[in-house]
Specification:
mainly alpha, 16 helices, globular, binds protoporphyrin IX containing FE
Amino acid sequence: MTAGYRERFTAAIGPWVNNNHPLPTGLPADVTAFLQQSNKLPSWVDVSQLRRAADFNRRKDTYLFMLYGLGSGIMSTVIPREARSVYWSKGGADMKDRAAKTFTFGYDLSQLNAFEPNGQFIVTANKTRMVHAAVRHLLPQLPQWKSGATETIPISNGDILVTFHSLGTFVHSKLKEWKIPMSTADENAFLHSWQVAISLLGVKDEYIPKTWADAHAQSAQVLSPILLPTTEGKALAEVLLGLVSQVDLGVTRGFLNEFTRYVLGDTVANWLGLPRDLASAAIIKVGWPAYILFREGLLPLMPANFYLFDQFIRAVAMAFLNGGPSTQTTPIQIPDINRPA
Ligand code: HEM
């Protein structure tokens, strides 16, 4: 891609933000033709379920931040194909920016109007698709990526399903495990929003799980068996955890390591070489379930350490969202190079 072309492309997609904005002009004809068919909701969408999902995301945002950030985010570093492609792509060298952009996806998805004309999610998903397409073009040119690759072109439909399970399916299983109150309608709506999201990312209908039972079965088949540490993944995990521990809200790195271990289990934590902090582990084991009960109105007295967990959640949000959920989202740009040396 020449410099002039790249600048024209970036300028063309910049103002294209809301779902009801016209498609950008000045793009190559084949890109415009592609967007004309991709920039819309799938025919099977159920708008009332999407509205419920957005409301659910709002009601449960505390847990979702923690689970997407420290659960899915760190899990992505032990999904070898994902870790390697993120590490060797442009954004891998600036994980703060990249984490914020990836959170933009979740943030746009959880807005009440995400799929409405004045919402942004359909455009965000299409821009993400363009980023993935650029990565498919760029990474195979890089010797460092090619040398360890188990595929010739990255980010297949299968890979996207794996990532969905590390996000939606994983979060669903943890919400159940933590006994977060949810109605069946909420659970179904949460699944539906993910079904629409991965459809907008290009996953074909026949691969998209129809129920949570299907999703968990597919996850056991395609995600659990492939988790493994890589050099690249370990480096990314260190950067991501470093971002949270840099936020100075009194949360120690030991506490962060132990919370990550609590969420992802010993195998993953040991792969990533997270040192033990048994005092923090003890606080989390007792304190986090009590925090949940109190938040959900199921415990009359505020538990000890309530503020510690509250600060911790703020630190995670600040690290991954460029200052917290109320700030402007970070615009997604199409990468033009691989990881700079
Ligand atoms: C970029 C979301 C699956 C690799 C992005 C971006 C988003 C995103 C929002 C744009 C952020 C940015 O510009 O950095 C998702 C979601 C997925 C998914 C929601 C599935 C549900 C995957 C998979 C892989 C992957 C399966 C690899 C195996 C990448 C890479 C970038 C990217 C390498 C570009 C990083 C850069 O250089 O800036 N993704 N993604 N993604 N994604 Fe994905």
